[in-house]
DNA sequence: TATGTTTCAAATGAATCCACGTCAGCGGGATTA
DNA sequence: ATCCCGCTGACGTGGATTCATTTGAAACATAAA
């Protein structure tokens, strides 16, 4: 490893600190939701808040301290975006025996058995992706399990405050999740966190106070600011100055986007690139038709088969869920109905 | 040597998931009649 | 009322994956000449 950083871990997104600064309220709210008596049914939760507010980390940290007789399954639904894939992940979390059978109902039966004998928490992170791609069958199944008192469904979303708007009534009414909201970090909190982590990670490089202040005032997204700081540290000779931080702002942001898109297909990236390039050509928002043309062009130059516009329409939605683009409906009269897309 | 039996891997079959393309109907303000 | 351009849900298709079954040929065993 030829890493300039002594201990890069604290600057990584998945680093789990001992204590969550500025998330004490949310953490204790989660804990109390589960603090009921032994016999009480497990609650369903819907955790929401903007991207980069520590939802995933806090939830996972709280649930990693569950008593032994409660099992836990964590499913990142941006990656496992169908009922089948998610069920498979849940099964994997319960038992090591390699997935045999390839039948959705088979997996459902297994999970049913598991829930019968053991209290269970299922965490569905980035639930929007699964709902967009495959509907709410999985949620419906989980909410209607025979021993539903024994299972807790925790959905996490960066885009949807209220699950009710995304799922069918019958699902919502049997799920009845309690909502827990995460507020964005304010500048002060973000500054503290970054300073704390930098202290642990950057022993050999000095860090100007103004540099951190600038980052903390430009975004409230912890993930983005960590990437930014990491990028600056990588670039810096000895001192991370405000000037340097400003300089690398754009490229650090691109790096952040790349990380987000890492789990997706190359076509997602090409679509993003198409949006990026077209929006660079003057107007700040572009219609989908133009983006699709640009996308096709990019495909030709990289010798890839272009997907249909139907696909790309969905891909743009996914990029929107990731927060890297924004797309609003636009009724242009004779110019038709489309979406206007711009960079997030 | 001819014939029967066993063994095991490769070929084939069957079931399933799902990414994708195609199709048709829709949306709603601007334009036109 | 018409038009525009793309949105969107439904549906069919083919590739991929996985397990189960069949096939076939080698290896071995036995019996007959």
Features:
single chain; 344 residues; alpha/beta; Helicase, Ruva Protein, domain 3; Rossmann fold; Arc Repressor Mutant, subunit A; 3 domains; 5-stranded parallel beta sheet; 3-stranded antiparallel beta sheet; 15 helices; 10 strands; globular; disordered N terminus; DNA-binding
Low-confidence runs: 1-6
Class computed from helices, strands and strand pairing: alpha/beta
Distance between the termini: 34 Å
What is the residue-averaged pLDDT?
Answer: 88
| Number of discrete helical segments | 15
Radius of gyration: 22 Å
Write down the CATH topology of the largest domain. Rossmann fold
Write the H/E string, N to C. HEHEHHEHHEHEHEHHEHHHEHHEE
Count of folded domains: 3
User: Percent of residues in beta strands?
Assistant: 5-15%
Overall body shape: globular
CATH architect. name of the largest domain:
3-Layer(aba) Sandwich
Total beta-strand segments: 10
CATH superfamily of the largest domain: P-loop containing nucleotide triphosphate hydrolases
Quick overview of this protein structure:
With 344 residues, the chain is an alpha/beta fold.
Produce the secondary structure layout.
Blueprint: H1 24-33, E1 45-48, H2 55-64, E2 70-76, H3 83-94, H4 104-117, E3 119-125, H5 127-134, H6 137-143, E4 151-157, H7 169-175, E5 178-181, H8 187-201, E6 206-207, H9 209-218, H10 222-235, E7 239-240, H11 242-247, H12 249-261, H13 266-279, E8 286-287, H14 288-301, H15 309-322, E9 325-331, E10 337-343
Parallel strand pairs: 1-4, 1-5, 2-3, 3-4, 6-7
Antiparallel strand pairs: 8-10, 9-10
Helix pairs in contact: 3-4, 8-9, 10-12, 13-14, 13-15
The chain binds a DNA duplex (33 and 33 nucleotides) through α14, α15 and β10.
């Amino acid at each position: 490893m030829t890493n300039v950083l002594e201990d890069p871990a604290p600057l990584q997104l998945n680093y789990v600190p001992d204590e969550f600064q500025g998330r004490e309220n949310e953490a204790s709210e989660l804990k109390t939701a589960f603090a009921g008596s032994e016999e009480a049914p497990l609650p369903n939760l819907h955790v929401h808040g903007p991207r980069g507010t520590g939802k995933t980390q806090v939830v996972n940290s709280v649930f990693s301290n569950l008593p032994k007789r409660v099992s836990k399954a964590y499913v990142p639904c941006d990656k496992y975006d169908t009922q089948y894939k998610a069920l498979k992940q849940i099964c994997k979390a319960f038992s090591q025996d390699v997935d045999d059978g390839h039948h959705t109902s088979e997996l459902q039966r297994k999970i049913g058995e598991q829930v019968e004998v053991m209290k269970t928490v299922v965490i569905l992170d980035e639930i929007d992706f699964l709902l967009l791609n495959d509907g709410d069958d999985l949620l419906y199944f989980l909410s209607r399990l025979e021993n539903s008192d024994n299972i807790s469904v925790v959905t996490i979303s960066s885009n949807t405050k209220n699950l009710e708007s995304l799922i069918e009534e019958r699902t919502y009414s049997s799920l009845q999740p309690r909502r827990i909201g995460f507020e964005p970090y304010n500048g002060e909190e973000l500054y503290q966190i970054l300073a704390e982590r930098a202290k642990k990670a950057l022993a050999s490089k000095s860090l100007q106070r103004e540099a951190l202040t600038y980052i903390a005032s430009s975004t409230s997204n912890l993930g983005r600011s960590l990437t930014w700081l990491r990028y600056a540290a990588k670039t810096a000779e000895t001192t991370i100055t405000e000037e340097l931080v400003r300089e690398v702002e754009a490229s650090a942001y691109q790096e952040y986007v790349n990380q987000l898109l890492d789990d997706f297909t190359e076509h997602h990236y090409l679509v993003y690139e198409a949006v990026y390039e077209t929006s660079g050509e003057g107007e700040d928002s572009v219609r989908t038709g133009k983006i699709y043309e640009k996308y096709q062009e990019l495909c030709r130059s990289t010798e890839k088969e272009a997907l249909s516009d139907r696909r790309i329409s969905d891909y743009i939605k996914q990029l929107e869920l990731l927060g890297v683009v924004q797309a609003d409906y636009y009724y242009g009269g004779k110019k038709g109905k489309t979406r206007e897309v711009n960079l997030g």
